[in-house]
Amino acid sequence: MSRPELEACLEGLHSGGELDSSGAFTLTREKAVEKLRSFRLAEPRLYVLNLLAAAVAGGAGRIEIECDSDDFVLTAPGISVSLYQLRELESHMLSEGSPALLRELGVGFYGAQALRPQRIVVEARTPDRGLRICWRAGRLEEEEVPAGPAALTVRVREKVGLRTAGKWIARCTGATRPDSEEDAIARHCNLAPVPVLINGNPLVRPLSAGNVEASIGFRDDAPLNAGHPLSQLFQSTRLQALLQPTGGPFRGFLCLGGRLGPWLTLVVHGVSFRVATRSFPARGVRGIVYADHLHKDLSQTRVVQDSAFLELMDRLFEFCRSWLAPRGGAHR
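-> structure tokens emitted (332 positions)
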């Protein structure tokens, strides 16, 4: 993990660090590990967003989720995690060039512990070997499991209590409890770039921009599969332009009018974040942008407004000014 990424990840933990002579925040590795072991997400259930983000970052072609009142199981077929990476998860979270898969998996793993569950199990299989690590009552255990097709599976088993009882009652009535993991996935991951199945049912959001005044699409060099939400928008909307490539690690759709929510949504490794109007003051413009290079703060509820974020906002504003301004949009 580079210094800017680590600083973004550890935002909010300044009490444990010092300012160096340049004014940059520094944190020793020992202190960082201590903090990462004890941090709490804004909502404990949000650990599931990091687990889904890990699957997306790892290149999963689909994500399968099974959940009930006390169990949450996420399986990502096709993902290979080495035994060394799994054993040294916290170290890889802090190392230079650490893959997003490991960073997200680590945050999800430690974040889930705030629920004080009965156990957390992470299982990685490859055609050669398999390994399972289990967190139980603050202790870590590991064991080898049979080899098999590459896959990553994470299971969180909660202790029976008021929260699990509430989820059970809601499930009996056909409802989804607002503080459940299932609700978090449905609310924040319905624009994921890969298919997501929850208890066998696809998490589908029929996506249409409706009757727009003007619209543009833009994409990078990476392939865009037919099921990607942007494919739906590109095919169902008459675009003023489809810019390719963008020259940056992002892709998206911007428009004036229509039925999308009246704001800009950023999707980072499958998790959606709404951008405040003050950060993207292009009047009347709405849209969806996929930008996996952006950083989240430690609460996992906000995108850090660092140089990568500001550069992206400038690029998007230029797109608006070039293609949407003649119709009345893109005013600061």
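The domain at 212-327 is CATH 3.30.230 (Ribosomal Protein S5; domain 2).
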